[in-house]
Design a protein that fits this description.
- The protein contains 16 helices and 10 strands.
- It is α/β, with parallel strands linked by helices.
- It has 2 domains: 225 residues, Rossmann fold (3-Layer(aba) Sandwich); 96 residues, 3-Layer(aba) Sandwich (Rossmann fold).
- Strands 1-2-10-7-8-9 form a 6-stranded mixed β-sheet, sandwiched between helices.
- The longest helix has 15 residues.
- It is globular and about 65 Å long.
- 53% of the residues are buried.
Length: 356
């Protein structure tokens, strides 16, 4: 006898709080319900004095937070009778769109910046059967192209400019309140195209439990120094950073992100690639949580905030969003690792090299 799973994905679980069409027949891979992991050892490494939790979105079906928005976008697209979807991507959106299109039985077309996508993300998009097209240009160029293509083709555009994406991604805020019983004092997260920071803020504002307490989190958005248009207030025409997921020079949700930062009394800052990689190593080695380097930008920003002393989080509850799984960017992981030692198949040789 078949049994309906307790968890049915974010549309089935939070559909009454989502403004999308087609909610009665969701296109789902049972995304969401990702863990909120207490990070005691990481807190100690950062100096102590506060409570930190990691919202590990890398455990979504395609390994990133994008699945929350994609289930909503594909659900709506199918309800409209669309037979194809299209997106521009630095990687995670591509894999997610391809997977959910495959689940729905429709076509997926993905534009990526040539040579600037992590292999784990490209592998996913190809494996799910998407038509992947590399553009000699940036993500922003690709996004401009798919916006124009949407006007010419019978397709649904599923980038974060699609309102359904925001409706799906805001559900992560509901889950955080479910786990903590209230909103955190601070929420830290990477910022690329700015859809996620927009989504979290909407989710927190709409959560009925928060409405009773009036407690909303302050947002800390973090961009890579080589791709920090919101920090500088200027479009970056040639963004450069090893953090591929946030290598975006003209965020589609720029204005929404600014509004969220102002309303939350939050902050946005830029961190170097070195600071991102340091934070990445710290998260992985203190807590055993394997995220992609871009995901650690939020931790890098928190670390910088603590060092500069501009804002105190002492006695506060902080949530850092880890947006993607470490296997999304295997080259980055291997580049940070020590190569394994090679020995003969002999216990004596093992005893010579084992660390006490």
């Amino acid at each position: 006898m078949s049994r309906t799973p307790a968890w049915q994905g974010v549309v089935a679980s939070f559909g009454d709080r989502m403004s999308i069409e087609g909610k009665d027949r969701p296109v789902t891979l049972l995304e969401g319900a990702t863990p909120l992991i207490p990070a005691h050892r990481l807190v100690e490494a950062l100096g102590g004095g506060f409570e930190l939790h990691l919202k590990y979105e890398g455990l979504n079906p395609t390994g990133s937070f994008k699945d929350r928005g994609m289930t909503a976008a594909l659900t709506e697209a199918v309800s409209w009778g669309r037979q194809a979807v299209i997106c521009a991507s630095t990687g995670n959106t591509a894999a997610s769109a391809a997977a959910y299109a495959a689940r729905a039985g429709i076509k997926c077309m993905v534009l990526i910046p040539e040579g600037k996508i992590a292999l784990g993300k490209l592998a996913g998009a190809l494996a799910y059967g998407a038509q992947v097209i590399a553009v000699r240009g940036s993500f922003d160029d690709a996004l401009d192209m798919v916006r124009e293509a949407e006007k010419l083709l019978p397709v649904a555009l599923v980038n974060s400019i699609n309102p359904a994406r925001i409706e799906g991604q805001k559900t992560a805020a509901f889950e955080i309140v479910d786990a903590l019983g209230e909103a955190p004092d601070w929420l830290c997260l990477p910022v690329g195209n700015a859809g996620n920071i927009t989504s979290y803020w909407r989710g927190f504002k709409e959560d009925y439990r928060i409405a009773r307490t009036s407690k909303l989190p302050r947002l800390l958005g973090v961009q890579a120094a080589g791709a920090a248009p919101i920090v500088t207030g200027q479009r970056v025409h040639h963004p450069e950073t090893m953090a591929t997921a946030i290598r975006i020079g003209n965020p589609a949700r720029w204005q929404d992100a600014n509004e969220a930062l102002i309303e939350s009394l939050g902050s946005i800052l830029a961190v170097s690639d070195e600071e991102i990689l340091d934070a990445y190593r710290l998260v992985v080695r203190t807590e055993g949580v394997f995220c992609e380097p871009s995901s650690a930008a939020g931790i890098a920003g928190l670390r910088k905030l603590l060092r500069e002393g501009g804002v105190s989080v002492r006695g506060k509850t902080v949530v850092a969003v880890l947006t993607g799984h470490g296997l999304k960017d295997p080259n980055a992981a291997l580049g940070q690792a020590v190569e394994p030692k090679v020995i003969e198949a002999d216990v004596a040789a093992l005893m010579e090299v084992v660390e006490a």
